[in-house]
Amino acid sequence: MAELRCPCLSGLVYDECCGPLHEGLLTGAATAPTAERLMRARYSAFALGRPEYLLGTWHPSTRPKALELEAGRQWRRLDILGTEHGGPFDTEGVVEFRAFYRIGGDRGELHERSRFVREAGRWLYLDGELLG
Q1: Rounded to 5 degrees, what are φ and ψ at 83?
Q2: How far lies 38's CA from each of 51, 74, 85, in Å?
Q3: What residue numbers bound the domain in which 69 lies?
Q4: Distance, CA of 132 to CA of 125 (rounded, Å)
Q5: CATH (domain of 79)
Q6: Percent helix, percent strand, percent coil in the chain, to nearest 5
Q7: What are the pLDDT tens digits along the chain (132 aa)?
Q8: What are the residue boundaries of the YchJ-like middle NTF2-like domain, all occurrences included (predicted)?
Q9: Residue 63 to residues 33, 53, 60, 112, 126: CA-CA distances in angstroms?
Q10: Is residue 101 part of a domain?
Q11: How far apart are CA 101 and CA 99, in angstroms?
Q12: Which of 10, 28, 30, 105 sits in a 20 to 30 Å window from 118, CA-based?
């Protein structure tokens, strides 16, 4: 059986890319070292239907009480357009991305500038600004 390529399109297999971050949320064994890595892991969580990871990496000040992923939405591609800060020694970072999806026969795109903060050594998603 072929190994699953990571949905974030890093070129790695899931178990060597976003998989350890998804599992690390439960065990505390692995956290994203940069804002971009968290963005990629969150995208993969959307693609694989893992709302627990999304909620667990969302800053408490902006996190919703619950998150229901849209049934039928298939996330197809993530393009990272740019980053500002968000490195292993920063406390804030921004990642601009485009994410492409399908719902039935319709195609769509999400273009966002996401803000991240690093607290107690963990990157967290703060909020995002949708772009045209």
Answers
A1: -135, 150
A2: 14, 20, 13
A3: 14-130
A4: 21
A5: 3.10.450.50
A6: 25, 40, 35
A7: 458 899 999 999 999 999 999 999 877 778 999 999 999 999 999 999 999 999 999 999 999 999 999 989 999 999 999 999 999 999 999 999 999 999 999 999 999 999 999 999 999 999 999 997
A8: 34-128
A9: 21, 12, 5, 17, 8
A10: yes
A11: 7
A12: 10
Both tokens assigned to 14: 């899931």
Q: How many domains is the chain built from? A: 1
How far is CA 10 from each of CA 36, 95, 124, 127, rounded to the nearest angstrom?
11, 15, 20, 23
Extract the tokens encoding 53: 């990871």
Q: Look at residue 2 in the predicted model and tell me its pLDDT.
A: 59
Question: Residue 105 in 3-state DSSP?
Answer: coil
SS3 (DSSP) at 57: coil
7 within some domain = no
Residue 6 is assigned to a structural domain of this protein: no
DSSP letter assigned to residue 2 = P
